[in-house]
Amino acid sequence: MGTIKDRADLDYAGLAFSYRKTDANLRYTWRDGKWDEGVETTSDSISLSIAATCLHYGQAVFEGLKVYEAKDGRILCFRIEENAKRLQHSAAKLMMQAPPVETFREAVHRIVRANARFLPPYGSGASLYIRPLLIGTGPRIGVKPADEYVFLVLATPVGPYFKQGFSPTKAIVEEEFDRAAPHGVGDAKAGGNYAAGMRATVRAREAGYGEALYLDSVEHRYIDELGAANFFGITQQKAYVTPKSPSILRSITNLSLRAIAADLGYTVEERPVPVDELEQFVEAGACGTAAVITPLESITVRGKEIVYLKDGKPGPHCTKLYETLTGIQYGDLPDRHGWTEGIDL
Length: 345
Ligand code: PLP
Ligand code: COI
Prior knowledge:
Elements: E1 25-31, E2 34-35, E3 39-41, H1 53-56, E4 60-62, E5 65-69, E6 75-78, H2 80-93, H3 101-114, E7 127-136, E8 149-158, E9 169-174, H4 191-206, E10 211-215, E11 223-226, E12 230-235, E13 239-243, H5 252-263, E14 267-271, E15 281-288, E16 292-301, E17 304-307, H6 316-329, E18 340-342
Parallel strand pairs: 9-10, 9-16, 13-14
Antiparallel strand pairs: 1-2, 1-3, 1-8, 4-7, 5-6, 5-7, 6-18, 7-8, 10-11, 12-13, 12-15, 15-16, 16-17
């Protein structure tokens, strides 16, 4: 069981979702066909060839997962294996080498041990965010996969992704820009997808919305996802409805919420969700590791604002799902699905 000694003196409850340098980060290198043992480094800079493929040709994929302190002092990480497997999926799509699941798991334990004093205390609402990053570092001037890769892992304490935490935000359906195409890499957690989404996100924020909601890029008829989170809607008949689309990231939070919703007696529907159906939901939410569940106050589509929450407060469905998910993550509720893993210091 972990007891944090000399916890860093930070305003944990006031943390935003931003980067803060911590004590150490890890770097594993793939060279000559194999991964090394990884090294722990205190500097948060890297030295790269100016011809590295991550810089020129976007061979860069990443992950995001959170570590929580439980009331009794246990240190819990949520669904490491799913994140490890998704990194492999993302890497395969960009012709990159990915670390084995066991290396990924060991790296998460190791980065937490090295930065345990930054673990936000139970009750602060914050968590330790782990960001594994895989980059092509081998030099290439012609377009082809690198012959060397670095798997970097950093940890940084974070608060909520959307400014207000578990309180509603407004979304706007983006029609001018597409995020990803069906046979492209929208289902990979590739850095380039986020660069491609910045125009829409910046524009949405400037117009007073929390995030842009993308449509499928073929017909602009179905909901895809938000810039940094999946979408779900709740119907009057107590169905949890979430888009099935080849161009969205397979959110591990969404996977977990589907199981939780089923446990709570909801019908779970993963299917194409026509944009016209937005008006029929009684509640809607954004879900992801960083976003957790962010209830959507309203969604503006083609000039019309569909309002879900009139009093600015989260609705009962999102609240129940949020409390159950975070209850499991912080160890307050039984982990019936075996999603959390204890980390020993
Ligand atoms: N969709 C996108 C585009 C994301 O960046 C994220 C964040 O990771 C998600 C969905 C949610 O995925 P997860 O729940 O695995 O964090
Ligand atoms: C996460 O939720 O872990 C993410 O990676 C979203 C991020 C792009 C802010």
